[in-house]
Design brief:
Blueprint: E1 8-12, E2 16-21, E3 28-33, E4 39-43, E5 52-56, E6 58-65, E7 68-83, E8 86-98, E9 110-114, E10 117-121, H1 123-139, E11 144-146, H2 156-160, H3 164-167, H4 171-174, H5 187-190, E12 203-214, E13 217-227, E14 251-259, E15 262-270, E16 277-278, E17 290-291, H6 297-312, E18 314-319, H7 328-341, E19 346-350, H8 353-356, H9 365-371, H10 373-379, E20 382-384, E21 390-392, E22 396-401, H11 407-428, H12 441-462, H13 470-475, H14 480-499, H15 501-512, H16 532-553, H17 559-582
Parallel strand pairs: 15-22, 18-19, 18-22
Antiparallel strand pairs: 1-2, 1-5, 2-3, 3-4, 6-7, 7-8, 8-11, 9-10, 11-12, 12-13, 13-14, 14-15, 15-20, 16-17, 20-21
Helix pairs in contact: 1-15, 11-12, 16-17
GO molecular function: phosphatidylinositol-4-phosphate phosphatase activity
Organism: Cyprinus carpio carpio
Protein name: SAC1 like phosphatidylinositide phosphatase a
């Protein structure tokens, strides 16, 4: 397998970037012309001594914004651990560097004509700053990982079933495009095979690698969650599937065990219910989900599951949504479509998580685990013996979902993964006959905390806050403090989902290439203006509410006068609030770069 370089120096001159490979024996230099944007391969002898030099950890890619091209580099990394002798890194800090020495070429003042408004606006400069802040918003979202000499985008089983030709490919060529988050940024480098050693795929999600010991036997326990970059986005703005069958918040989670040169792997997936539905924020705590009435759901539904069966084998769907209230129509639609496919490779199981576990009855989750035990036995897991021979393969996966595919989903996945791990460790000889993982206190603590950390990582990337119900994942029981923390996280989610997720969605769309900046555009979608009435209503409500407080603090001469004032300002405040709630969608932070119809 062709590997990528691991260490670099960036030499910058006013005309060019020189990216020098610093690995032992390396003599290659990637030269980027800051004017023409051309990329060429050169040698160390061509680096001018006048350049400003700094070490970097890797190239994330390049992107075009209003001010021209930008180079994105990784400036700090941390070692996560070793996977089969290959070092896995977490990218911690990045730098976004302009090709141009100055952005003074941008228009200082442009007149923007907007209906009902005539604004003089420093357009180009402001747009470029906004786009830069979007790129940094994605880069600052925790969870970017890479390896320079190993393919992190594929599961162990997929890698074992590859051809010699595949194994000779560069990391960029062989990466699973679903999980390569810098694929759009590396398009120019990917187009030039001679430059492939200067870049590597970066995945987004979560990786933990822990040395563990049971019965005096040391083994490596690894958890990898790969977040798909197809139909990627934030909680309420990206639900369901697209026309290609890509599901929102699709995550592939692989649990790996290494012991005495043997290895085992168990894979699960999660993803939004794969038909066309939406749940756009509207200031209500829980917006009502809407199933599209004018779309052929079965086409996208079939595409989704045909690809899942092709990649993972048989599918068992674990639908954990409520079987009452606003979630019920979604559950019924999902069940109806699975029945309509009449595919024997796909099995559907509905489990009302909240109903079954109400009143702190978390032991009832065992009902679901027991119900699918025979299927889990049938699917098995991927295993390689110490002599390198494949002794078993996983023939199917559990595809779990709740509404967000976060909190409830992670709890169930951790239970199924533990059951698989029990069998793997017994076959490897780590666990004795009759021993249970739950009895190994030290390992249980590592296991539960890692799965809770996985839940938090996936939740922060999709919903903007840590996960709910992690107290159960960490301790095996629900606690009152956990309920308090869930309430706090729910409040933060409400604020972010309504007032900052539009910007986050735009950031992801820009980063992944769903929206591309055209330097010739005189007006970008960032300048879509709301009706002035909707800018005034919140001000009126705040003023009316403030007057109510003032009336209480500074009572009039008579109680009837005070009551009259209170009634007037109270009615004004209540009516304004009612108008705002009824027109809630107009007041939330909505995405601007990609049309709403493409996300519904």
């Amino acid at each position: 397998m062709a590997t990528a370089y691991e260490r670099f120096n960036l030499h910058a001159t006013p005309e060019k970037f020189y990216i020098e490979a610093c690995d032992d024996g390396a003599n290659d230099v990637l030269v980027i012309d800051r004017v023409s944007t051309e990329m060429t391969l050169s040698g160390i002898k061509d680096i001018p001594p006048s350049g400003v030099t700094r070490p970097i950890c890797g190239i994330m890619g390049t992107i075009r914004l209003v001010a021209g091209m930008y180079l994105i580099v990784i400036t700090r990394k941390r070692k996560v651990g070793d996977l089969f002798g290959h070092t896995v890194w977490k990218a911690l800090e990045f730098d976004v560097i302009s090709y141009k020495k100055t952005i003074l070429h941008l228009t200082d003042i442009q007149v923007i004509k907007v209906p009902n408004l005539n604004l003089q606006y420093n357009a180009d400069m402001q747009d470029n700053k906004t786009f830069l802040s979007m790129i940094n918003n994605v880069l600052n979202t925790d969870g970017f990982y890479f390896c320079t000499d190993y393919d992190l985008s594929h599961t162990q089983q997929r890698l074992s079933n590859t051809s010699p030709d595949f194994q000779e490919m560069s990391l960029l060529e062989r990466a699973d495009q679903r999980f390569m988050w810098n694929g759009n940024l590396l398009r120019e480098i990917i187009a030039q095979p001679e430059l492939h050693k200067f870049a590597f795929p970066v995945i987004h999600g979560f990786i933990v690698m822990k040395p563990c010991c049971i019965n005096g036997k040391v083994f490596e326990w690894i958890l990898i969650s790969r977040r798909s970059c197809f139909r990627a986005g934030v909680r309420y703005y990206v639900r369901g599937i697209d026309s290609e069958g890509h599901a929102a918040n699709f995550v592939e989670t692989e649990q790996i065990v290494q012991y005495n040169n043997s290895q085992a792997s168990f894979v699960q997936t999660r993803g939004s219910m794969p038909f066309f539905w939406s749940q756009r924020p509207n200031l209500r705590y829980k917006p009502k989900p809407q199933i599209s009435n004018d779309t052929n759901h079965m086409d996208g539904f079939k595409r989704h599951f045909e690809s899942q069966v092709l990649i993972y084998g048989k599918q068992v769907i674990l639908n954990l949504v409520n079987q009452k209230g606003s979630e019920l129509p979604l559950e019924q639609a999902f069940a109806k479509m699975v029945n309509g496919m009449e595919n024997g490779l796909i099995k559907y199981i509905a489990f009302d998580f909240h109903k079954e576990c109400s009143k702190m009855r978390w032991h009832r989750l065992q009902i679901l685990v027991d119900a699918v035990s025979d299927m889990q036995e049938e699917f098995g897991y991927f295993m390689v013996s110490s002599d390198g021979k494949v002794t078993s393969e996983q023939s199917g996966t559990f595809r779990s979902n709740c509404m967000d595919c976060l909190d409830r989903t992670n709890v169930i996945q951790s239970l199924l993964a533990r059951r698989s791990l029990q069998s793997q460790l017994q076959r490897m000889g780590v666990l004795h006959v009759g021993q249970k993982i739950e009895e190994q206190a030290d390992f249980e603590k590592i296991y539960k905390n890692a799965w809770a950390d996985n839940a938090n990582a996936c939740a922060k990337q999709y919903a903007g806050t840590g996960a709910l119900k992690t107290d159960f994942t960490r301790t095996g029981k629900r606690t009152h403090w956990g309920l308090v923390m869930d309430g706090w996280n729910s409040m933060i989610r409400y604020y972010k989902n309504n007032f900052s997720d539009g910007f986050r969605q735009d950031s992801i769309d820009l980063f992944l290439g769903n929206y591309t900046v055209d330097e010739t555009e005189s007006l970008t979608p960032l300048h879509v203006q709301k009706d002035y009435k909707f800018l005034l209503l919140p001000v009126i409500m705040v003023v009316a509410f403030s007057m109510c407080i003032i009336c209480l603090l500074m009572a009039g001469d008579t109680w009837t006068e005070t009551l009259a004032y209170l009634l007037f300002w109270g009615m004004a405040s209540a009516l304004t609030a009612a108008v705002i709630v009824v027109n809630g969608r107009e007041f939330v932070d909505a995405p601007k770069l990609v049309q709403k119809e493409k996300m519904d």
